[in-house]
Write a structure and sequence with these properties.
mainly alpha; 67% helix
Length: 211
């Protein structure tokens, strides 16, 4: 699908589009345990999910993350592949220990501490959204790994592990700044997502998904 109709053209959106183009290219070179996944051919959903997340953060954070991606490319690393590898620690711990752990960069204790801090804040934000919009939340990632799919915890930790410490610090600052304004990063991500599907706000989306 030509996703140009989804793209916006503000300076921030142009940076997001550049980031997503790099991520999509990396995603195309991810090889799963059973080969290529159907989602690797669904650029529309990929764009919507990635844009919705990235747009919730500030330009300086996005610039730092873009640098992470560019540095990875220069060093023949695929951050999307590494994200899925890190996720295996939660979805298949035995396989991760046996075949994967030694093939991905080791995460320092101080970086993990920051990742857990970010996760804690975003989990708190998500609980607020779940309480307000339970029907919308039914369509998000499950809380635990299993037949329903990979948990949001595994997915988010896997992704955060691929970010540089600098990018993580900027994410932390963005979340704290949002809280100081009485805003909720997860709610912003949900709002961005629902906008792509034609909803003016989460209240309207919740009404439709409740039927």
């Amino acid at each position: 699908m030509n996703i140009d109709i989804l793209r916006k053209n503000t300076p921030k959106d142009n940076m997001i589009n550049e980031i997503i183009d790099i991520e999509w290219e990396m995603f195309q070179h991810v090889s799963g345990l059973t080969g290529r996944a159907p989602c690797q051919d669904d650029m529309k959903t990929f764009y919507i999910m990635r844009y919705s997340q990235h747009s919730a953060f500030q330009v300086t954070t996005l610039f730092s993350y873009k640098n992470d991606l560019m540095n990875a490319k220069e060093n023949s690393r695929n951050l999307i592949a590494e994200k899925y590898a890190y996720m295996m620690e939660y979805s298949d711990p035995e396989l991760y220990k046996k075949d994967i752990e030694d093939k991905v960069p080791e995460i320092s204790a101080i970086k993990m501490e920051l990742i857990y801090k970010i996760m804690s804040m975003m989990d708190a934000d998500k609980k607020i959204v779940q309480a307000r919009y339970p029907n919308i939340d039914k369509y998000s990632r499950p809380e635990t790994d299993g037949e329903a799919g990979t948990s949001s915890k595994a997915y988010n930790i896997g992704e955060l592990k691929t970010y540089s410490f600098k990018t993580l610090k900027k994410m932390e600052e963005d979340i704290l700044e949002a809280h100081s304004r009485g805003e909720n990063i997860v709610e912003t991500i949900y709002t961005n997502t629902m906008e792509f599907y034609g909803f003016a706000d989460l209240d309207r989306a919740e009404q439709v998904y409740s039927k």
